[in-house]
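Z., the sequence and structure:
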Amino acid sequence: MAPQSPVNYDLRTVSREPIRRIVLTGFMGSGKSTAGPLLAARLGRRFVDADDVIEAEAGARIAEIFVREGEAAFRRREREAIAQLACQDGLVLALGGGAIETAETREMLLNSPGTLLVHLQVELETTLKRCGGTESARPVLADEANLAARYARRLPLYQLAHVSIATDALTPEQVVEAVVERLETEGLRD
């Protein structure tokens, strides 16, 4: 029996027009910020990390925004930043891990013509391995029960994406190849 491909996809909601923007979603440690710039370079697009935009606009790190303003205010900032970015062409956009929980953001990305939402799927154990030592920037890592609950809550939402790629055993370059292959196979590459 042949090994199962790391790529699962459901492109029923993607229009057959060329993809003008690729949006990467997934749990922390899935490779969004690592594979994203490589994918953008491969496709001749610009890479933007939504968290970087939010931090620049707020003049503070994400963790500081959570402490200072609370999660609801952060999610509002995040939703507004993604809405502005998600209408730009020639873009590979990496989302923060929790962005997919906001229904308005999720629906916008799933139904926006020219947008391909790609879920970089990672097992929780891989997240812990890849992100270990970053607890000061990612305080949720220190509370494994809370982390596991977040993972379980978000996974079904991530899986709504047009494309899912299991990244646990893939290098960033292999992730890029999997996305490009899917674009070419479906005739979605411009």
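The first strand starts at residue 7 and ends at 9. The chain has eight helices and six strands.

Let me know what you think.
H.
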